[in-house]
Design a protein that fits this description.
The protein is about 45% helix and about 15% strand. It contains 7 helices and 7 strands. Helix 3 runs parallel beside helix 4. Bound molecules: nicotinamide-adenine-dinucleotide and 2-acetamido-2-deoxy-beta-D-glucopyranose (3 copies). Nicotinamide-adenine-dinucleotide binds next to helix 1 and helix 4.
Length: about 250
């Protein structure tokens, strides 16, 4: 076993699928104890069952609900007698609609899960770390998207939510730097996961033509970057937004 994040306690949201699940695998491979949190507890448990090591746990979390997030962190601190010092926010949803079709439900869902959810997790995590005197070498990684900086038809609200994640990450890095907590964002391009499966084939083919590497990305290729950002190897990277897109921008 490698030791990139040996002995660390990590909490990953959206851990039941796609990028979040791969992040759990790479963290466990690199020596961390993983709390796999998802609104779908069954898929989070499947993630845990697939990990190396026996100390990992699955946890229910609904990132848009403050009570749920605070309860989840309380349970983790109680069970492990310390707060997690690696936090990866991978919970998110994708909606594709023309602006004229965006209704209040779509707007609320995307903003509440992608933007407010990231805020609640970060806020609760940072408080737990500060209270637990566990801020040194801590690392928070928010998952944004290249959609935050690109223009794509149908992605207005999703792009706005992801641009908000970058803005909040930059401010968070400023506010938490004094404690030793680093905060960075990762901007994946088009990654093969259940989320991107709903994108129509003709759009997919068009996108691939615009990717310099001429292929879509794998969740593991994003997870490796996230775990690097979680580890001491990236000790001077803070407030950054790292693109993992095969060159698409
Ligand atoms: N797949 C891509 O191409 C791509 C590209 C750029 C960014 N992203 C971002 O990466 C992140 C992960 O995406 P993915 O492709 O792995 O998606 P996914 O749909 O495979 O997984 C998302 C997970 O989040 C969970 N989730 C959704 N709402 C939740 C909530 N309210 N509380 C807790 N968990 C919740 C789901 O249950 C699911 O397990 C998302 O933030 C997404 O926006 C994905
Ligand atoms: C991202 O990271 C910081 C650090 O905690 C957090 O405060 C911010 O709210 C997070 N969420 C978003 C949406 O950037
Ligand atoms: C906080 O942790 C540091 C080591 O990381 C230790 O030196 C210090 O004494 C601790 N302070 C308190 C109040 O526990
Ligand atoms: C922080 O990381 C450095 C380098 O790995 C290590 O020497 C130090 O002990 C770490 N501090 C804590 C509190 O983990």
């Amino acid at each position: 076993m490698s030791i990139l994040v040996a002995g660390k306690l990590a909490l990953v949201t959206g851990a039941g699928s796609g990028i979040g699940r791969e992040v759990c695998r790479v963290l466990a491979r690199e020596g961390a104890t993983v709390v796999a949190a998802d609104q779908n507890i069954k898929t989070a448990q499947e993630t845990v069952a697939s990990l190396e090591g026996v100390e990992h746990i699955a946890l229910h979390i609904n990132v848009e609900d403050r009570n749920s997030v605070e309860t989840a962190f309380k349970d983790v601190v109680k069970q492990f007698s310390k707060p997690p010092t690696i936090i990866v926010n991978s919970a998110g949803i994708y909606r594709r609609n023309f602006l004229t079709e965006v209704d209040d439900n779509i707007f609320d869902d995307v903003i509440n899960i992608n933007l407010k959810g990231t805020l609640l997790v970060m806020q609760t995590a940072a408080k737990a770390m500060i209270e637990g005197n566990a801020t040194e070498n801590s690392s928070i990684i928010n998952i944004s998207s290249i959609a935050a900086t690109r223009r794509d038809v149908g992605q207005s609200i999703y792009s706005a939510s992801k641009a908000g994640v970058i803005a909040m990450t930059r401010t968070a890095s400023l506010e938490f730097g004094q404690f030793g907590i680093r905060v960075n964002a990762v901007l994946p391009g088009f990654i093969i996961t259940p989320m991107s499966a709903i994108i129509p084939d003709e759009v997919r083919e068009m996108v691939i033509k615009n990717i310099p590497l001429q292929r879509l990305g794998k969740p593991g290729e994003v997870a490796e970057v996230i775990v690097f950002l979680a580890s001491y190897r990236s000790s001077y990277i803070n407030g950054a937004s790292i693109e993992v897109t095969g060159g698409l921008n």
